Structures are given as structure tokens and as C-alpha cells.
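Record type: monomer structure entry
Structure origin: computed from sequence
Chain ID: A
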Amino acid sequence: MQADTGPTLTVLPPSRDELQQGKATVLCVASKGYPSDWTLSWKVNGCSRSSGVNLSPSQLQKDGLYSWSSSLSLTKSEWSTATTISCDATHPSNNAVTKSFNTQQCADNQ
């Protein structure tokens, strides 16, 4: 039986092309987690965010672990005023896993 494993989180910023179109989609990819019922959630500047969230169902990988993804859609102005965007993976019987993204690292994209 597989031991409970917190997923590895990767947060991907919106592309420059998308920002030029006036929108911003941030993607959170969770990989190598177990069991399948981890939940992904978002925070913008430390505040929970539920609008504009699209969650994909878990996918069982060949190694017996699961992967998930979630996207967060923001307007260009929301993206430009955000300083920190966090993706949290939570499970009732495990410690939460958090990956934060500092939007100021992409100041040249705004």
C-alpha cells in the first residue's frame, strides 16, 4: 500500500502574449501525490480566491501516484496589483503543501 505523500507543486505564470490580450491565467500543477483526494486552492495576496478557478480531476500516473492541476483566471489589472499568488494542496490527514509565486519577479511582463 502506498504511503500518503504530499504532491510537488509548480506554479506557472501567464504568458506575455496572454497579458498583452488583457488577461492572465496562472497554472498550478501538483504531481506525485497520494492518495487521490488532495484539494488544490488559491490565494491572492494572502486572501483565498474561489472565483475564476478551474480544477482538473486527479490523474493516476504509471508510478501509482497522482497528479492534478488547477488554473486561476485573473484580469490584467488583478495580475498587476497582485504581489503574491499561492497554490495550496490540502488533505485531511496530511500537512498542507504550499507553493507561492512572487508576481514582481515578472515585472517586465506587465
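Annotation 1: Helices lie at 16-20, 76-81.
Annotation 2: The first helix runs from residue 16 to 20.
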